[in-house]
Specification:
- This protein is of the alpha+beta class.
- It has one helix at residues 37-45, and strands at residues 2-4, 12-14.
- It is built from 1 helix and 2 strands, in the order ββα.
- The protein is elongated and about 50 Å long.
- It starts with a strand and ends in a 9-residue tail after the last helix.
């Protein structure tokens, strides 16, 4: 399971199997976590303005 097309409004969860696998059941859950200090520093170094909601 991986996430893709992640944005501030949503994302897709991708569940992949091998060619002839039959899925009986699949489930997923998620938890929103605030921005990490490392990602904030990276954003600031790349010119982002994080003063409004950072």
């Amino acid at each position: 399971m991986i996430s893709r097309d992640v944005s501030t409004t949503g994302f897709e969860i991708v569940f992949e199997t091998w060619s002839d696998t039959k899925i009986g059941r699949a489930a997923a859950s998620w938890m929103a976590v605030g921005q990490t200090a490392e990602s904030r520093v990276h954003a600031l170094l790349n010119g982002a303005n994080l003063t409004t909601d950072g």
